[in-house]
Amino acid sequence: MSVSVLGAGAFGTALAITLAERGVTLWARDPDAATAMQKTRENATRLKGIHLPEGLTVTSDLTTACAADTILMAVPMQSTAAFVTENADLLRGKKLVACSKGVDLTSLRGPTAILAEVTRAPAIITGPSFAIDIARGLPTALTLACKNPILGEELQETLSSATIRLYRSTDPVGAELGGALKNVIAIAAGAVMGAGLGESARAALITRGFAEMMRIAGPLGAIPETLMGLSGFGDLTLTCTSPTSRNYAYGFALGQGADYDPTITVEGAATARAVARLARDKDIEMPITSVVAALVEGRLDVSQGMQTLLSRPLKEEI
Ligand SMILES: NC(=O)C1=CN([C@@H]2O[C@H](COP(=O)(O)OP(=O)(O)OC[C@H]3O[C@@H](n4cnc5c(N)ncnc54)[C@H](O)[C@@H]3O)[C@@H](O)[C@H]2O)C=CC1
Ligand SMILES: O=C(CO)COP(=O)(O)O
C-alpha cells in the first residue's frame, strides 16, 4: 500500500515522519516550501529542528502525490470542502483518511462526510496527539475509524508505527465529532484560565462541556460511547489542560483580552459557530458551545460569557 499525506502543516508533516520508514510522499501546496523541505530535510515553519527522514519525499505536484492508493488529508477543516471539489478527479476511489478536526461552517459537515463525495468508506485518524510529540517519536494512541471494518483493519495495520498505536472503530462520525467538539471546549477552558477564574471552574467546564458533546453526538448520527474514547474524552483531556494546544492558547488570549495571531490554525473557532447552528437547528441545549461561538464572534466577552452560564436555571446534572 503506497501512502501520501496532503497538507504539509504541523500535523501532516508529523504523520509523514512516522510513516517514513515504509516510504511516504508529503504534498505541500507551496512549491518553494516543498523544495526547501526536500532539500533541507526540515519543515522550518511548522516543526523547526525536526529532521525529515530519508523515506519521506516532499512534492508540490498533487498528481504525483495522489498516485498513492492511500491518502491522508491533513489540510485544515475549513479548506477541505473546496480542496476536495477542486481535486475530485485525483481523489476519487482512493482510500482516504481524514486527519482534520472540525465542522465545515458552510455545509455543517465533518471531514468524512466531505470525503464521502469522492470515496465510498472514508476513514479518520483522530485523538490526543500534538504534532510535535508525534514528530519526536513520543508514544501516542489514536482512533482509526472507518465504517468498512475490513478497510479499517487494513488501514490500522498500514498506519500504525512503533510509536503510534491505533485503536479501531467503525464509527467515523463519533470519532470526528469527538475531535471537533473538544476544540470548542478547549477554547472555553483556555478562556477561563486566561481570565483567572481558576482550575475548579475549568474542571466544571470540561465536565459540562463533555455532557454537551455526548448530548449532540446521537442526534448527529454518532454512537455516543465513541466519544468516551481517545477521540473524545482523551483529546478533551489533553487539549483543555495544555498551553501547547492552539485552541486552549487562543481561549487563554481571549480570557486575558490579548491579541492572538490570526494566521494560526484554531479549528475550534469556526467549529463553535457551526455547532451552535447545528444545536439550534436540532433544538439541543449546548450553552458552553453557544457562549464560545458568541466569544469568537465578539458578541460577548469572557466575563459576560461566564455570567450567561452561571445565571442559567438550576437543573439536574444529567
Ligand atoms: N497540530 C497538531 O498538533 C494537530 C493538528 N490536527 C489537525 O490537523 C489539521 C491541520 O492542522 P495543522 O497541520 O496543525 O495546521 P497548520 O496550520 O500547521 O498547517 C496547515 C497546513 O495546511 C495548508 N493549507 C491551508 N489551506 C490549504 C488549502 N486550501 N489547500 C492546501 N493546503 C492548505 C497550509 O499551507 C499549512 O501547511 C487541523 O484540522 C488540526 O486540528 C490534529 C491533531 C494534532
Ligand atoms: O488536536 C490537537 C491535539 O490532539 C491539537 O490541538 P490544537 O489544534 O488546539 O493545537
Topology record:
Elements: E1 3-6, H1 10-19, E2 24-27, H2 31-40, E3 56-59, H3 62-65, E4 70-73, H4 77-86, H5 88-91, E5 95-98, H6 111-115, E6 123-126, H7 131-135, E7 140-146, H8 149-159, E8 164-169, H9 172-194, H10 199-217, H11 230-241, H12 246-256, H13 267-282, H14 287-296, H15 302-310
Parallel strand pairs: 1-2, 1-4, 2-3, 4-5, 5-6, 7-8
Antiparallel strand pairs: 6-7
Helix pairs in contact: 9-10, 9-11, 9-12, 9-13, 9-14, 10-11, 13-14, 14-15
Bound molecules: 1,4-dihydronicotinamide adenine dinucleotide and 1,3-dihydroxyacetonephosphate.
What does this structure look like?
The chain is of the alpha/beta class. It has 2 domains: 168 residues, 3-Layer(aba) Sandwich (Rossmann fold); 137 residues, N-(1-d-carboxylethyl)-l-norvaline Dehydrogenase, domain 2, CATH 1.10.1040.10. The chain contains 15 helices and 8 strands. Strands 3-2-1-4-5-6-7-8 form an 8-stranded mixed sheet, sandwiched between helices. The site of 1,3-dihydroxyacetonephosphate has 13 residues, from helix 9, helix 11 and helix 12. The site of 1,4-dihydronicotinamide adenine dinucleotide has 23 residues, from helix 1 and helix 4. Catalyzes the reduction of the glycolytic intermediate dihydroxyacetone phosphate (DHAP) to sn-glycerol 3-phosphate (G3P), the key precursor for phospholipid synthesis.
